[in-house]
Amino acid sequence: MRLSGIGPDELHERAGHRAGRRRPGRRRAADGVRACRTAGERVMVVEQFSLAGKAALVIGASNPLGRASAVALAEAGADVAVATTTRSQQEEVAANSCANEIWALDRKGFAQAIDAADERDVDSLVERAVSEFGRLD
Fold first, then answer.
1. What's the pLDDT tens digit per position in 105-126?
2. pTM for the model
3. Which residues pair with 110 in a beta bridge?
4. Are 21 and 47 in contact (CB under 8 A)?
5. What is the CATH number of domain 51-133?
6. Domain limits, CATH 3.40.50.720, in the chain
7. What's the CA gap between 38 and 49, in Å, rounded?
8. What 3-state DSSP class applies to 97?
9. 40-49 in b/e burial notation, b at 16+ Cβ within 10 A?
10. Is residue 84 a contact partner of residue 116, using CB atoms and an 8 Å limit?
């Protein structure tokens, strides 16, 4: 990368660092290999974070963040109820797709469209989750 005709080594030297030294933030082990997380380490963390036997509720599962949260909870072993806060066909399709991903992980789950501002809708969602999962953590 060059900025205004200056290369990274020149920027490094101008910042007061000696030429030839490693740049800050690039730490290496004694054998010269960069430390990084591997997929295996990530799996071990998920195994340590077990939600087996738990039940969760994710509101807003039709958007990417809610969907990722719901799937991560299911991957950790939880049964997950997902809800969308907008009653549109597109949102309901997205929430049902999220529920299908949860089922594909051999977890219990369902999708329901609610109006989050309506207390009765929220109560019915919680009641359905408790009746299907036996609990809600």
1. 999 999 999 998 999 999 999 9
2. 0.65
3. 81
4. no
5. 3.40.50.720
6. 51-133
7. 17
8. helix
9. eeeeeeeeee
10. no
